[in-house]
Specification:
- Helix 6 packs across helix 9, helix 7 crosses helix 9 and helix 7 runs parallel beside helix 10.
- The chain folds into 2 domains: 302 residues, Rossmann fold (3-Layer(aba) Sandwich), CATH 3.40.50.300; 75 residues, Immunoglobulin-like (Sandwich).
- It contains 12 helices and 15 strands.
- The chain is globular, with a radius of gyration of 23 Å.
- Strands 3-4-2-5-1-6-7-8 form an 8-stranded mixed beta sheet, sandwiched between helices. Strands 9-10-15-14 form a 4-stranded antiparallel beta sheet.
- A hairpin with a 2-residue loop joins strand 12 and strand 13.
- By secondary structure, it is of the alpha/beta class.
- The longest helix has 22 residues.
């Protein structure tokens, strides 16, 4: 069983990458489910397969697709919790429509999508599940959410659950009823599912996160920060995909030539910055990338003879160890020379300049929030790894 998750900055081509992967896998006779948490409902548009709803729709012999609708999923599985939240807003004098809108808390689409994945894994109907997640900043937080809540589930089960516990705390301030037995039963089931989901997401033998970017500075920086967060959380990242790369152009039109040169320079940087992760390059097509045949063509460019379900990389590119008193950051760097490197800290980033046999490589590495109260202590280069030490300002 494999779970492959695609995320990245908006507009980078996450959905087409996910669709291409699913089509390639189904072509290899792997029974595949393609799931999207994108509120824009783009799966049907990308596949040109008409409307795709919450129940798996058959696209081809071994490919099924589902578009998570949070309202439908909440009504089917967690109506008791949904109604309980809404009752609090109604008690504050809000009308029913607004109360139910507010009860659909931020992030519920992503959370319900993840629970849909847990349900699909439990069914054992599929060999692989491909998940098209929203913009990476949100995606990482919601991928980590099951681990936070799941780890609390056993502690809470003997007391009050997360929802019912808050309900009891807030009850004196509202005219709503106390948590019912049905609510607590639904909540216990939710916590148990989140705990199972956490084990699934953080198992590198099952789950891989793939980052999608374009050949521009903004999406590359977004991908680097997502990679740092994923490494920090313990989610395995096994691939970077760079979409919409212009071909090298010989033209008198300086506008096109400059853009092509700029993009190819960003791709070269990415190969060094994301080392040793595999970086897949996808060209800018001369027509819109949609429809099964075009997506299959894209899959061949992405994977060729490779099986998309294989694990392309297993280690961490960034590794953080320590606590509030001190922290060590290890960064893998390509073809490093011990004699020449420079490390400089600017706010919440580290700039690393390393001499290699292909020239100087500059990488800007985002730092976790815990380092804001720390100072840069030392840096040393060992083999293909740069070790940077921080210590608390209180030391």
């Amino acid at each position: 069983m494999r779970l492959v998750i695609y995320t990245g900055k908006g507009g980078t081509g996450k959905t087409v990458s996910a669709c291409s992967t699913a089509l390639k896998l189904s072509g290899l006779k792997s029974r595949t489910l393609l799931v999207s948490a994108d509120p824009a409902h783009t799966l049907g548009d990308a596949l040109m397969a008409g409307e795709i709803g919450g129940k798996p729709t058959r696209i081809s012999a071994d490919l099924y697709a589902a578009q998570v609708d949070p309202v439908v999923e909440m009504d089917l599985h967690f109506k008791t919790i949904f109604s309980y939240f809404a009752s609090y807003f109604q008690a504050k004098g809000m009308d029913d429509t607004i109360s139910y809108e507010l009860a659909m808390l931020p992030g519920m689409t992503q959370l319900l999508c993840l629970l849909k994945i847990e349900e699909s894994v439990r069914s054992r109907e599929y060999d692989a599940i491909i998940l098209d997640m929203p913009a990476s900043g949100e995606a990482l937080r919601f991928l980590y959410f099951p681990k936070i809540v799941g780890s609390l589930s056993m502690r809470l089960s003997g007391l009050a659950g997360l929802v019912s516990g808050f309900g009891r705390l807030l009850q004196p301030y509202f005219s709503g009823s106390a948590p019912s037995t049905d609510l607590m039963k639904t909540e216990a089931d939710l916590l148990l599912r989140l705990e199972k989901l956490s084990k699934l997401i953080f198992d590198p033998n099952i789950t891989s996160l793939r980052l999608v970017a374009n050949a521009d500075s903004f999406s590359m920086e977004n991908a680097k920060r997502t990679l740092m967060s994923a490494n920090l959380y313990g989610i395995n990242v096994d691939m970077i995909i760079i979409n919409k790369i212009m071909p090298q152009i010989r033209s008198e039109d300086s506008f096109l030539v400059n853009w092509a040169d700029f993009q190819h320079a960003r791709v070269t940087e990415a190969k060094s910055n994301f080392y040793p992760l595999p970086v897949k390059e996808v060209p800018l097509y001369s027509e819109e990338l949609r429809g099964i045949e075009m997506l299959k063509r894209n899959a061949e460019i992405l994977f060729g003879d490779q099986d998309p379900s294989q694990i392309f990389y297993r280690e961490k590119v960034f590794e953080f160890k320590g606590d509030s008193l001190g922290l060590t950051l290890k960064v893998k760097v390509p073809f490093a020379k011990n004699s020449d490197f420079l490390v400089e800290r600017i706010s919440d980033r580290i700039t690393i300049k390393v001499a290699t046999n292909i020239g100087y490589v500059v990488n800007v590495v985002p730092l976790p929030a815990i380092t804001l109260g720390m100072k840069l202590k030392a840096a040393r280069l060992t083999d293909k790894e740069l070790v940077i030490s921080f210590e608390s300002n209180r030391n």
